[in-house]
Amino acid sequence: MIRIGMLTPSSNTCLEPVTYRLLDGARDLASAHFARVPVTRIALDGGSDAQFAAEPMLAAARQLADARVDVIAWNGTSGSWLGVDHDRQLAAAITAETGVPATTSTLALLDACAAYGVTRLGLAVPYTSDVAERIVTTYAAEGLDCALAEPFGVSDNEAFARIPETDVARQIEQAAADAHAVAVVCTNVYGAGAAAGLETTLGIPVFDSVTATLWKALDLAGAHPALDGHGDLLRSGSLRAGFQRVLTELRTAIGADRTTLRLDLPGHGLHVDLTAGEALGPGVRSIRRDAGLDQRRLNTVEWLERHRIPLVQPHFRDDPRPPQALIDVYGVRAQLLAPVVRDTDMTGWISAHSLAEREWSATGRAAMAAAIADVHHLLDTYGKAHAA
């Protein structure tokens, strides 16, 4: 069984019971263990900032390491206003001190956004307006355009847990307008239950900080989380993150401008008309959320379905022709497609796009074959329990 060590703000009364609830039904998978560090107030001043100094965190981390935990997480969102580098340095220091992999709530939220390709993020926070605006600035530096719901205006950390869950739900709904996802940024707010319930209504992921921290800790410890009943991140986030990694590595290896993966995997909320992942070169337009085409009826996809081998197109002068929108709207001039065949079904395919005509070398085709193998491995690891 995996042991998760969590550094907890001393005045937090939410994250421990919520974490236990999230792990209920997966007790053979992992156990959670907590050490507290003094945190009572959230503000933009030296006194508040001092609560998040490294040494108290490291002292608590050393205590957790005595329990031989497999991962240590700072279960607090202070990096969201102190700066992401603060948390990166903290995680590195914890690992250097204890030899245990480490993460934080802020790093987990950013990793969740990366896994789902989020660039427009709604924020639901309990803090004062100046702290909330600092979070917007911090996340903007990480490539996230944030829409901020009206903050609750609270600075007493213990009081965050007294905010009714119904109020948190309304704040999430307010933050969701025109967003790819919503993040509840605070680990002492009861957002996990509301987040999981609202995903279906809103049609977008909702990343609660407590849930995201547990997800990333499990993933970092190698637990392959695929837990039902608590929202998409715990069910499918690690699978999606794996897809992103495969596509990013493929794009670099093959020299493509864009790589995408499309899959029919209903148990993970995936269907081929929207991509399961996408990696982009600098300045290349995203195709991730364009659902304007019936993908299964495209000439190129029907060709893949018939032949079940890679389709190599150094140009588009020969059949099968791709959709004209791919050329006119997205500027694609060459592509390499490879099917993902599970048992007897073509579950999906990987696409590599070039904005200029080009030959696809044997090395590039080998990289595509390796990427397909990696997708199969991910589906075997994470996807079987939820396949159709």
TrEMBL record:
Keyword vocabulary terms for this entry: Isomerase
Cross-referenced InterPro entries: GAF, GAF-like_dom_sf, Iso_Racemase_Enz_sf, MaiA/AMDase
Family matches, as Gene3D superfamilies: 3.30.450.40, 3.40.50.12500
Domain of life from the UniProt record: Bacteria
GO MF annotation, one: maleate isomerase activity
Enzyme class: isomerase
EC number(s) per entry: 5.2.1.1
GAF domain: residues covered: 241-363
PANTHER family registered for this protein in UniProt: BLR3294 PROTEIN
Protein name per Swiss-Prot or TrEMBL: Maleate isomerase
